[in-house]
Design goal:
InterPro entries: RNaseH_sf. The chain is an all-alpha fold. It is 61% helix and 0% strand.
């Protein structure tokens, strides 16, 4: 679940980066290799009997999100990246 989701996100970000001619900041305020927080409120307290059940639940949650959810996430990524670059890498969310 996590690896396929991260792979999809990585591919999407690579396409956006190439399209917009962005450069990757070497001092990112986050680790792109870590899995995203997939609706912790949605899956909070849920116990899964197997990894495949957890994967299915997360994929169903992701597939159920609309276009606005992903658009908002990308907009936040751009905003946070701009803040990081404008502060020369010295950016921490407060």
């Amino acid at each position: 679940m996590v690896s396929s989701s991260c792979m999809t996100i990585s591919i999407l970000l690579a396409k956006v980066k190439n399209c917009c001619k962005w450069e990757v900041c070497s001092n990112l305020p986050y680790n792109p290799d870590l899995p995203p927080n997939l609706g912790s409120k949605h899956l909070s307290g849920t116990r899964f009997s197997s990894n495949s059940d957890a994967k299915t639940a997360a994929e169903n949650w992701l597939n159920g999100q609309g276009r606005d959810f992903y658009k908002a996430g990308l907009n936040k990524l751009v905003l946070h990246s701009d803040k990081c670059l404008n502060r020369f890498g010295d950016y921490v969310e407060k």
